[in-house]
Amino acid sequence: MNDFTRRTALKGAGATLGAAAFAHAMAPLTEWTKDLSLDEFLQRHYKELTPEEMKVILRRLEEETKQEYGRDVTIQDLPPQEGVSFGYALNLSVCIGCRKCAEACHQENNHDRRTGNSYIRVLEMEQGSLDLERGNADYDHAVPAPGKYYLPVQCQQCDNAPCVKVCPVQATWKEQDGVVVVDYNWCIGCRYCEAACPYHARRFNWSKPEVPAEEINPDQGYLSNRIRPQGVVEKCTFCLHRTRAGRLPACLEACPTGARVFGNLLDPKSPIRWVLENKRVFVLKEELGTRPRFFYFFDK
Amino acid sequence: MAASRHVLDYPRFLGRLLWMSTDGSWRFYVWMTVLTAICLVGANAWARQLVDGMALTGMSDHVSWGLYVANFTFGVGLAAGAVMMVIPAYLYHDHEMHDVTLVGELLAVAAIALSLLFIVVDMGHPERAWHLIPGVGRFNWPVSMLTWDVVVLNGYLLLNLHVCGYLLYMRFLGQKPRKRWYLPFVFLSIFWAVSIHSVTAFLYSGLGGRPFWNSALLAPRFIASAFITGPAFVILLLQVIRKFTGLPIGEGPGRTLTSVMRVTVLLNLFMLGSEVFTAFYTGGAHAGPAQYLFFGLHGHHALVPWIWTAVACNVASAVLLHLPASRRHVTVLNVACVLAFVGVWIEKGMGLIIPGFVPSTLHEMVEYVPTVTEWKITAGIWAFGLMLLTVAVKVALPVLSGQLASHSAPKGEPTSQEKEHRAAA
What we know:
The structure holds two protein chains of two kinds.
Chain A lengths: L1 H24 L3 H6 L3 H5 L8 H19 L4 E3 L9 E6 L8 H9 L12 E6 L21 E6 L8 H5 L5 E3 L5 E3 L9 H5 L5 E3 L14 E3 L11 E3 L4 H4 L6 H5 L5 E5 L6 H8 L2 E2 L11 E4 L3
Parallel strand pairs in A: 1-8, 2-12
Antiparallel strand pairs in A: 2-10, 3-4, 5-6, 7-9, 11-12
Chain B lengths: L1 H19 L5 H27 L14 H15 L1 H9 L3 H28 L22 H29 L5 H27 L12 H28 L6 H31 L5 H7 L9 H19 L2 H4 L1 H19 L1 H4 L18 H29 L15 H9 L1
Helix pairs in contact in B: 2-15, 3-5, 3-7, 3-8, 3-13, 4-5, 4-7, 5-6, 5-15, 6-7, 7-8, 8-9, 8-13, 9-11, 11-13
């Protein structure tokens, strides 16, 4: 009996010690739960939200941005326009590889400043080859270099998108106007979509994005360029906060050579339709059956 | 009437097992304390990773999965491999194996728990896991292979928990287990074991943008290597159990599992060879990842030492297992098992996941090296898995051997199952 009680007492002491050590090990979590509100935790999927609920969420997000980044911003949730289906084309004969588009994307979409993130990567390619193997994204010299051409790659907004297929929680989907979007408040951060994308179009927020208040673009969209939370995936949305309001994508406006053509595929008079009908266009990795909405062509 | 009694008695039985699991020799306490300490280091690293973000890992947008997913894949294989005890026992009526099948099923439970934890720590938002619950969240089934994996892994966990729990409880009560309450589940679990590892392979092989994974041979390779690691682990585990519990475990199960391994180590090497041939003979861009893995590409060599270690381990274990010495000397067998286990861990872990991302889909060369945070979390989860397995085996064995029985259970009487076995022997 005596032995039994001693053993039990020892076990009790061990259990207490273990619990204390565990609490100590998990202590950093208090900081994590501080940032996590119950409303945010229980928030439903984008498609299940009523307009009223969305309004409350948008105000909450604006307030959080103000608190955490010190900037007044407007976050909107613009719906796709009726009769609009977006397409993008890029003239490879004209592109000089200056990467102004990538820079504009960086600013427009409130990307993390430390990593210099952008949704666009420009590959310097060998003349006479379409083999990405021979491309180089890390060039650092005056452009255009002789014997090279330049291939900017961003989200191809595939009609048969592998990233959408693989998402286990439908946190990413294709909108009516053809844009593939992510609900940053629904994504669980498994990064299966990143593995599935054949175009390196997706980015993960490995840490909380850092953007100085004065550099923040205050014109923001819920599904596009609002400052993303840590631990979720993001991607190019054809700047839907601009394009759904009748403006052009930031990368197009920044292009000094006019290599980029954007518009409504359903409008027979749009410039994008003219390109598709009059140029010999191609898409990247057509053999994968992803059916991109991003077209490339050579002029001469 | 009787059923309602079990509703209360079964949890009580489990509670008693749990309480019993805290008793043991000083060796047991040392073992569990060391594992707990490693676990806590891992838990602390994970808590920090949640706060500061996954930038604490070596992963990037180019190599977006790393050590966690590698270990997840390996863990699923270990769980599936445990079925190599169930098949001889239930399909081929190997009675000696039948007596220790429970060990394999408990290993499956621990391995699945370990695999699921590796997924949890790989998630940017684990608190949003409820988005995966069908009906409550938005479960993208049947389109996403990851949802299939959620279904089969949790299903396999429940199947094994049920079979182990039921058989132990009946033994505890001194009653003969009723076939309809476990046999259908056992047979289902055989099919299910193959499914968990096939589905895990399909996660990768279904991605057209990743030529290294996009191979129909991936699922068969996964199964073959699972049937290496499962038996290898159990061969070692049975020896440990015999040493520390004095339980009379015959030589039969070990022999059967060794025979299984003799076939699967060769199958695995053959399939690896087929992949290597196809990649290198074809050449072109599709050979890039294999080139990077085995020889390095464009001055990047991070995986070369890993994969050649794996090849060396796998070839050495295959040779050892086919030497007559492996039958005579248990040390030779044990060395072969350890080599096979390590070889497959590398080949199916780092050797499979990382080359899927290098070169990237735009053919950029960005390498991956796990950080200290990742190693801490990985060690913590392995320690947790071992704790789970230790406790499970430790409490299951006294029940199995009849040392722990309900007061109402007939004492001293061998159960009818034991009689059957003796008659058969």
